[in-house]
Design goal:
By secondary structure, the chain is an alpha+beta fold. It contains 13 helices and 18 strands. It has helices at 16-20, 38-47, 65-71, 116-129, 161-165, 188-193, 217-231, 235-247, 287-290, 296-310, 319-325, 380-394, 412-416; strands at 53-55, 76-83, 86-94, 110-111, 293-294, 338-340, 347-354, 357-364, 370-375, 403-405, 420-425, 428-435, 438-443, 446-452, 457-459, 466-471, 477-482, 486-489. Helix 2 packs across helix 12, helix 4 packs parallel to helix 7 and helix 10 crosses helix 11 (319-325).
């Protein structure tokens, strides 16, 4: 399998895991629901990776984990599964670095990337409980070493901790690429001001705070500075005392760069073609946003702690703040957590994407079930998604199973009318061709089969993209939309 440019669309789109969580799941007798021991469930997960979609009336296209790791050039994977309110099992697969024989174990450290935000949010809420911070006060009141620059947007509405943690503070800078080994690393203040050697723009308010949801790693870097200022301590040591030690996340650290004595336990990051990331991994001084090194087991402990706190059974966080954390502040997001689904499917978690590392964690608000998957490859998100589908089927979760699709017959003339070249962005083309009665997207060396749901709506199996051909008054397609987010005009 080659890695097409089409496959690299996913980082620019809403992850299918979130889109599918509340969709109608598939059921299949090949996956027993009860009466199995743990080893049997593990075996079904390891042999039963599944795409986002399955086709009604056809056998499940289940594939073994090792094959999908190879397909997506992901050398190492680590998994922890929560069942009945506890970590039921945790296993490592593959190697920590391509070309070596060092195995991934449950204690191998991975970069958590944006999952770092969830744990940082818990630390911030602990400072709220200690009355060192207020959720709804102007953060400039307690920021010392740096201030949010005031402007017309902050005249009446202010940047608050609640807004920082819920991505609604109106701040810029979506995310961070980190710093290659051997290159200068900026201070937090330099990151916030976009001053060299920072490689990102200044973090500034350019929307009235509180008015919209817009993902901002920059906002979490403001929260990092705020927490360090009020505590008068370095962020990694502060987070160790506020969260990591109390929750029992013994393998975790926010130290950046990773200390020498921990490097032997760390996985190395890999590019989308499976090559070792130069220097093994990047350094992220934006620690609250992207700097946590951890394991799936430690993240599972975090998820279980939030669940306990929601029941009023945690010594780490009060029930009131835990409920606040897992209540929608803006659509799809609480305080440091992505929220999805309703009723039995209501879940919380987060995804993560650093250079060379991709990961996903999710748990149900009720029922004591969840999973965490961490990978050391840039295409690891696809592996993580398929593992989650396998876990959802093996444990009969109410969501995150593959969605069953019906394929319809379409007149070949109607399919032929969709042929053409479509431009995703300047110089970025996809060719749509009809071959033997089947429609394909031709992307470089890859031929990606499109399955019709209607004459104009199609899906593809490998990554779960939905393509919709929009026609003009003359009946000819004018453009394609992909997952309702990207628009590709016909050229």
């Amino acid at each position: 399998m080659t890695t097409s440019r089409f496959q690299r669309l996913r980082p620019f789109l809403v992850p299918a895991l979130l889109l599918l969580a509340a969709a109608a799941p598939a059921a299949h007798p090949a996956f027993p629901r009860s009466g199995d021991d743990i080893e049997a469930r593990i075996a079904r997960v390891e042999s039963g990776l599944l795409p986002d979609f399955i086709i009604a009336g056809r056998p499940l296209p289940a594939k073994p984990l090792a094959q999908r790791m190879a397909d997506f050039k992901t050398p190492g994977v680590s998994v922890a599964v929560i069942n009945n309110g506890a970590v039921e099992w945790a296993k490592g697969y593959g190697v920590t670095e391509t070309g070596t024989s060092t195995p991934v174990t449950p204690h191998t450290l991975f970069q958590a990337a944006s999952i770092s935000k969830s744990i940082a949010a818990l630390g911030a809420l602990r400072l709220v409980e200690q009355e060192k911070l207020g959720l709804d006060e102007d953060v400039n009141i307690k920021l010392v070493s740096w201030k949010v620059p005031e402007n017309d947007f902050t005249r009446t509405e202010k940047v608050t901790l609640r807004r920082l943690l819920s991505h609604s503070a109106g701040l810029t800078v979506h995310g961070f690429g980190g710093y290659e080994a051997g290159t200068p690393v900026p201070t937090t203040s330099q990151v916030l001001d976009g001053a060299k050697p920072a490689n990102t723009d200044p973090v500034r308010v350019n929307v009235v705070p509180g008015t919209i949801w817009r993902y901002s790693g920059g906002g979490y870097t403001v929260a990092q500075q705020l927490m360090a200022d009020v505590a008068g301590r370095p962020f990694p040591a502060l987070m160790a005392d506020l969260v990591l030690k109390p929750v029992g996340m013994d393998d975790s650290t926010y130290e950046q760069p990773l200390p020498e004595d921990r490097r032997g336990a760390a996985a190395s990051g890999h590019t989308s073609d499976g090559k070792l990331l130069p220097g093994r991994y990047h350094t992220y001084p934006e620690m609250a946003a992207a700097g946590l090194w951890t394991t799936p087991t430690d993240l599972a402990k975090f998820l279980l702690e939030i669940a306990r706190a929601r029941r009023g059974e945690s010594a780490v966080l009060s029930k009131a703040l835990a409920l606040d954390m897992t209540t929608l502040q803006k659509p799809g997001y609480g305080l440091g957590l992505s929220l999805d689904g309703f009723g039995k499917t209501a879940s919380f978690g987060h995804g993560g994407s650093n250079e060379g590392f991709k990961c996903q964690m999710t748990a149900y608000l009720d029922g004591g079930r969840g999973a965490v998957i961490m990978t050391n490859g840039d295409l690891g998100l696809f592996v993580a998604g398929e593992i989650l589908h396998a876990v959802a089927l093996a444990y009969d979760w109410p969501s995150l199973k593959p969605v069953e699709k019906k394929v319809v017959a379409v007149d070949p003339k109607a399919l032929a009318s969709l042929e053409g070249r479509y431009e995703l962005r300047p110089g970025r083309f996809l060719d749509v061709k009809l071959e033997g009665g089947t429609l394909f997207v031709i992307d470089g060396e890859d031929r990606i089969e499109l399955y019709p749901e209607t004459e104009t709506r199609f899906f593809e199996m490998d990554e779960g993209h939905i393509l919709f051909f929009v026609k003009g008054p003359d009946g000819r397609p004018t453009h394609i939309t992909i997952d309702g987010q990207l628009k590709a005009p016909r050229r």
